[in-house]
Amino acid sequence: MSKQDSTYQHSQTRALIGVLLFVGFACALGAGAYVDHVNNRSYQQKSRQQVLDELSVIRAQMEGNLYSNLQTVRGIVAAISIEPNISQQRYAQLVEPLFEGNQHLRNIGAAPNMKIKYMYPLEGNKAALGLNLSTHPLQKHTALKAKHTGKMVIAGPVKLVQGGIGIIARIPVFIHESHSPDSSFWGLVSTVIDAESLYIDSGLKNPNANINISIRGKDGLGSKGEVFFGKPETFTNNPVLSNINLPGGQWQLAATPKQGWINTAPDAALVRTIIALVCAVIFGVFFLIIKLIERWQI
To answer: pTM, whole model, 2 decimals?
Structure first.
């Protein structure tokens, strides 16, 4: 072999060595980047699951508290449908036991022909007497919806005329005439749940919670309704979402970690150090093998 051919062969060998080193290093680096991505992704998924688990507990508590309060008034609806000309005294006798041990109920009112006539307790709620639900600008929408659909409708949270914030369940009452198979609309029974008490008892204001929660869907409008608890920006910060199903609608809950979403796993530095060491070892082994091949050719 001539000197020129030998020089050319060594040049080709060095070029091949360079390519092999580059390919080996690129493969090791790519594998390391993938491992790092999987590690961070796994941590992100675990973080979202933890937020979902905590949110699910609060959602279940809130839904349970809501429905336990809503069920209390169904007996009143049945009583009025049987006794449509009920007196205020008789009404109070029927409603009073429902408030025993109940911290959420503000009042239960009844509105024949959509005008509030009956109320318990009267103390602190007299301002609501005489209120025409079919014309009140803030309450007529859900009141008329309950009348026209014949189903329970959730209104609010709303500012109450007697003060405070309440969540109102409106239930239509129909009277069945003995001489006719048809029923006629009597009016509405409305129960007011104290919003602040519901939030506290459901864990929404727990200072030890690890998550921020916001709720939207005023009047049961779900994702299309306005935010009535927490900060609106929670819904734009890649939140975990959950729904509370209501009679005739939904509330949507959003939650994020109090410290914000962390995209890098806590052990990322350790994993990356190990990846770097593995890459260095692989690179060293490749380099040693190539050197041996180069010497063998010489």
So the answer is: 0.82
